[in-house]
Amino acid sequence: MIKKKILKFGEVGKILVKGPQVMKGYLNNELATKDVLSKDGWFDTGDLGFLIPNGSLFITGRAKDTIVLSSGENIEPNPLETEILSSEFINQIQLVGQDKKCLTALVVPNVELVKNKFLEEDLSQLNLNKNIGTFFKSQINNLLKSRLGARSEEQILDCYFVDAFTLENGLLTQTLKQKRKEIEKKYSLQIENMYENKFSKKI
Fold first, then answer.
1. pLDDT higher for 150 or 11?
2. What is the pLDDT of residue 203?
3. Are 187 and 106 in contact (CB under 8 A)?
């Protein structure tokens, strides 16, 4: 059942479409059809976006990717991650925080640049190096803070360094999109540890 509410200009919501170009349903799958198609013909694209007064539509991400914090705040990770990737020190990133108090991040660093910047540091175990961790956390939060319309809940509590997401390890789709659920499952213990370690120290 698709619930519809017309939003104001600039408000982010699900994108529904209707018209002769929209399918009538999935073949021999009534349940799947009901999930995406309302009785009056509105199709749920699964995308999030907003309209501006001139009629232009901006797509901000996928509804299924939305992170809902324990406070009830909705975070759209895709535009935030795109902003973070403007840092030359970060090759890939995934923000996490579903049902948590705040965001954390899984980071695939540009190892060569890290080596060049931290010449005297021990890089054998990046996640144990406080200087590098602090540097990346600062980089990420400064980028997020500088975004137009940035919100306080869009800051990260901590980050954890991981290996690259690839087709070979099953963490990318054929179109090279990150498999968010699989990534979170693979690093579930590390994600939990980020929250436990920080909050146990009352940071």
1. 150
2. 41
3. yes
Amino acid 64: pLDDT: 75
Question: Is pLDDT of 201 > 60?
Answer: no
What six digits make up the tokens of 183? 């990534």
Residue whose tokens read 């919501």: 13
* Residue 99 placed within a domain: yes
Q: Is the pLDDT of residue 199 over 90?
A: no
Structural domains in the chain (count): 2
Q: Coil, helix or strand for 159? A: strand
* Contact indicator for 159, 107 with CB cutoff of 8 Å: yes
- The C-alpha atoms of residue 129 and residue 112 are separated, in whole angstroms, by 16
94 versus 12: the higher-pLDDT residue is 94
Domain of residue 83: give its range.
66-200
Outline where 25-90 has alpha helix (H): 30-36, 77-84
Closest by alpha carbon to 198, among 110, 137, 140?
Answer: 137
Of 198, 24, 14, which is closest to residue 102 (Cα–Cα)? 198
Domain presence at residue 118: yes
Contact of 201 with 110, CB cutoff 8 Å: no
> Residue 83, Cα to own-chain centre: how many angstroms?
11
